[in-house]
Amino acid sequence: MKIAVVGTGYVGLVSGTCFSETGNEVICVDIDQKKVEKLASGKITIYEPGLEKIFIRNTKEGRLTFTTSLEDAIKDAAVVMLALPTPPGEDGSADLKYILGVADHLGKILTDYKVIVDKSTVPVGTAEKVRAAIAKNAKVEFDVVSNPEFLREGVAVDDFMKPDRVVIGTTSDRAKKLMNDLYAPFVRQGNPLIFMDEKSAELTKYAANSFLATKITFMNEIASLCELLGADVDMVRKGMGSDDRIGRRFLFPGIGYGGSCFPKDVQALGKSAEEVNYNFKILDAVMEVNEKQKLHLMPAIRTYFNNDLKGKKIALWGLAFKPNTDDIREAPALYMIDALLAEGASVATYDPEAMNNVKQLVGDKITFVKASTKHCRMLMRL
Ligand SMILES: NC(=O)c1ccc[n+]([C@@H]2O[C@H](COP(=O)([O-])OP(=O)(O)OC[C@H]3O[C@@H](n4cnc5c(N)ncnc54)[C@H](O)[C@@H]3O)[C@@H](O)[C@H]2O)c1
Fold first, then answer.
1. Residue that finishes a domain, picked among 293, 314, 349
2. What angle do CA 206, 210, 212 make, to 5 degrees?
3. Same domain, 16 and 147
4. Are 72 and 157 contained in the same domain?
5. Any idea what the Cα angle at residue 147 is, between residues 125 and 353, rounded to 5°?
6. 349 lies in which domain range?
7. Of 10, 71, 86, 100, which is best to mutate to test ligand 1, by the most ligand atoms within 8 angstroms of its C-beta?
8. Which end of the chain is more exposed for a tag (fewer CB within 10 A), N or C?
9. Are the beta carbons of 194 and 166 closer than 8 angstroms?
10. Does 211 lie in the same domain as 182?
């Protein structure tokens, strides 16, 4: 199948590469010319375990190519996947300008039937908006499908190649058949392709991410309570997690959830609820607790140094929002760095993948070291 992937970031590059790995011809398109040039010259732009190998194989074999021209990318494609950013707008709701901008453009250049697939995380009703934006100018038939992506950075290739489930929102039989064919190689082991309407698919993604953020936050609250009551959260975690109904995952307390998805998705779901006058109380509490959690270690550090951090050198080990990624969007470590610097501490950091991205952000305000903790007064593994 010929596929165009619009947006070549974490989701677009992984999706495009994995679709080419199953024999499809994939053209990835991005407005970032430097990114496209780098990818076209055979160099990968993100760190994701296992991705480089299949990226190189498929670019060499000509199944995976890159362009900045949307028109060229979609010309022969049966499917056009949108893997575009949906960052929080000023009021916290998902900003759809990238998606709707591309939809508008697509309407003007479609020359035959295509399935437009929304892989980005978008609020309920976006498929309808995309359909309307394309229909304004389109002279041919098309379908819009909601196919939210569930890959996790750090294990994205595995998640994509062997997904727990694939959620596909469409009411069109023609689109359903095509999506079924496209995903068949990825669900050979029997994991489900779950077909539903577009709105339910859109909400499924927000519901899943908000539930996971809530689980993390609940455990962070339990950890705070353990500190006050003298219980050991690690034992509580083990005791709780062995109950099948609860499960062992997402019960590790820490300095809050971060990354490019949970914070913005919890916020956007809250906004969607607000728009229909629904008071989604849990989400407000989750956001409030997580905000505080990012600096949860500060009081302990102050106490340790008698409220004087001036001149103290503190090492932060781990900068990305989780292991095995170079993505530092909304990484809690960045909040810790700001707080420590504001109190006069100096900060030495190490991360195997994310140091370059942090360097670009904070420059020489902190030092970047090899994996050594020599001369540090305190080491924190984040
Ligand atoms: N990163 C994740 O782990 C993850 C997982 C599941 C879902 N998602 C969702 O997927 C979507 C994309 O996330 P991401 O992390 O891949 O974002 P990203 O920022 O890494 O990538 C987006 C890409 O789109 C490009 N772009 C912007 N406007 C464009 C245009 N008009 N035409 C072509 N390209 C354009 C950007 O240059 C960038 O390369 C978001 O909605 C996100 O919530 C992300």
1. 293
2. 125
3. yes
4. yes
5. 115
6. 298-381
7. 10
8. N
9. yes
10. no
Task: Tell me how crowded residue 198 is: count the other CB atoms within 10 A of its CB.
Answer: 24
Measured distance CA(146)–CA(161) in Å, rounded: 19
- pLDDT tens for residues 319-334? 999 888 999 999 999 9
Instruction: List the CATH number of the domain containing 156.
Output: 3.40.50.720
Q: Which pLDDT tens digit goes with each residue over 32-74?
A: 999 999 999 999 999 999 999 999 999 999 999 999 999 999 9
Let me know if 376 is a catalytic residue. Answer: no
Determine the straight-line distance between the first and last CA of the chain, rounded to whole angstroms: 43
Predicted pLDDT of residue 324: 87
**Mutational pocket test of ligand 1: of 261, 262, 266, the residue with most ligand atoms within 8 Å of the beta carbon:** 261
> Same domain, yes or no, for 40 and 152?
yes
Separation CA 79–CA 86 (nearest Å): 20
Tokens matching residue 279: 């008071």
Q: Rounded to an integer, what distance in angstroms lies between the CA atom of residue 63 and that of residue 68?
A: 17
Ligand 1 center from residue 351 Cα (angstroms): 23
| Element holding 205 (H helix, E strand) | helix 198-229
- Total number of domains in the chain: 3
Separation in Å, CA 258 to CA 42, 170, 234, 304, 343: 31, 31, 21, 26, 23
- Per-residue pLDDT reduced to its tens digit, 218-265: 999 999 999 999 999 999 999 999 999 999 999 999 999 999 999 999
Q: Which two tokens stand for residue 284?
A: 């407000």
Report pLDDT for 27.
Answer: 98
Bridge partners (DSSP) listed for residue 378:
314
Atom 24, ligand 1: residue with shortest CA distance: 7
Residue 96's nearest CA partner among 124, 77, 116 is 124
Report mean pLDDT in 10-residue bins for the chain, 382 residues: 98 98 98 98 96 98 98 98 96 96 98 98 98 98 98 96 98 98 95 97 98 98 97 98 97 94 97 97 98 95 96 93 90 95 95 93 91 64 68
